[in-house]
Amino acid sequence: QKEVEQDPGPLSVPEGAIVSLNCTYSNSAFQYFMWYRQYSRKGPELLMYTYSSGNKEDGRFTAQVDKSSKYISLFIRDSQPSDSATYLCATSSNTGGFKTIFGAGTRLFVKA
Amino acid sequence: GAVVSQHPSRVICKSGTSVKIECRSLDFQATTMFWYRQFPKQSLMLMATSNEGSKATYEQGVEKDKFLINHASLTLSTLTVTSAHPEDSSFYICSALDRGTYEQYFGPGTRLTVT
User: Fold this and answer.
1) pLDDT digits (tens, 9 = 90+) for B51-74
2) Which of A110, B74, B77, B106 is most buried, most CB within 10 Å of its CB?
3) Which of chain B's residues have a Cβ under 8 Å away from the Cβ of A94?
4) What per-residue confidence (pLDDT) applies to A52?
5) Under DSSP, is residue B85 helix (H, G, I), strand (E, B) or coil?
6) A65 sits in which H/E element
């Protein structure tokens, strides 16, 4: 079992749709939870960063963490064609040295 | 968000030569930097963790003598691919850890092509 599971997609939605991206993780020691967006041939860009369970909102993006079920989500409202990219979830732990585990990434296509 | 730069963004070299890639954190001090490799349509593969002032920690299967990492200052880490071969052609990405927030920021990546 991978430490972070993420459906690679691809996920195709029409413009304006609400997008839901999800990951599960296995290690309860993970303390930090991130979502990155990566456009083709570019480095990942940090979108959302959370430390605890609950919701965090930034514009059209909402990150949700449920530590009890080890489930993390990213919601994108009013999706735009410019949101088309690969979205990577990641979790980090600082126990015994800092370590980040990435999901496989979900490829999202938003059709105009 | 914080800015991490990488140089060069793209490099083509001949087989057998060495290539150095620089990673800089521009607006924060990064005691820890990471080097990743990414193949097309695949996720990031951690190669090594670079700690300022100490030896890098390499992931299993990564040859430390082939991928030399130096983290000489709080804002600069370098990756040198020695005696490059075509199979080393890949997208190399660094990231820097902001120890104050534990946020990890990525550079724009370096595309290496070995001919």
Assistant:
1) 888 889 999 999 999 999 999 889
2) B77
3) 102
4) 81
5) coil
6) strand A61-66
Length of chain A: 112
Rounded distance, CA B30 to CA B96, Å? Answer: 6
CA dist., res. A53 & res. A32, Å (int): 10
Measure the CA–CA gap between A75 and A58, rounded to whole angstroms: 10
> Which candidate from B43, B102, B105 shows the least CB-CB separation from A32?
B102
Q: Is A61 on the interface with B (CB under 8 A)?
A: no
**CB–CB of A46/B101 below 8 Å?**
no
Residue A52's H or E segment, with its range, is none
Please check whether residue A20 is in contact with residue A64, taking contact to mean a CB–CB distance below 8 angstroms: no
Residue A97 pLDDT exceeds 80: no
User: Which residues in chain B land under pLDDT 50?
Assistant: none
